[in-house]
Write a structure and sequence with these properties.
With 98 residues, this protein is mostly beta strands. The protein is built from 1 helix and 7 strands.
């Protein structure tokens, strides 16, 4: 079941800016995230809190060379939040690598 949609933006490994949605789903085991970018498909591990799902996603993206990542929640269930939530920047040390 889809729980939230987060907007994720930053720079891809080729240093192009990007902006994509990341979905947070609930299963019987917990919460997990899905992210698609061009041919890349990422699914996070299972966690019990949404912020841990998003941290897992950011770690996986950074391991692939994505940088300067930030995200914010845009949908909770079917309710659009009209970009009222603040951007959250990644706190990884890889954040500011060129």
């Amino acid at each position: 079941m889809l729980m939230e949609i987060h907007q994720v933006e930053g720079f891809d490994p080729q240093r192009r800016s990007f902006n994509r949605n990341a979905e947070v789903h609930r299963s019987d085991q917990g919460l997990f995230g899905r992210f698609h970018y061009e041919g890349l498909r990422i699914e996070t591990g299972t966690h019990f809190e949404i912020h841990l799902v998003m941290a897992d996603l950011v770690d996986r993206l950074q391991a692939l060379g994505f940088t300067q990542l930030r995200s914010r929640v845009n949908f909770k269930g079917s309710r659009y939040l009209a970009e009222r939530h603040p951007w959250l920047r990644s706190s990884s040390r890889r954040q500011d690598e060129p």
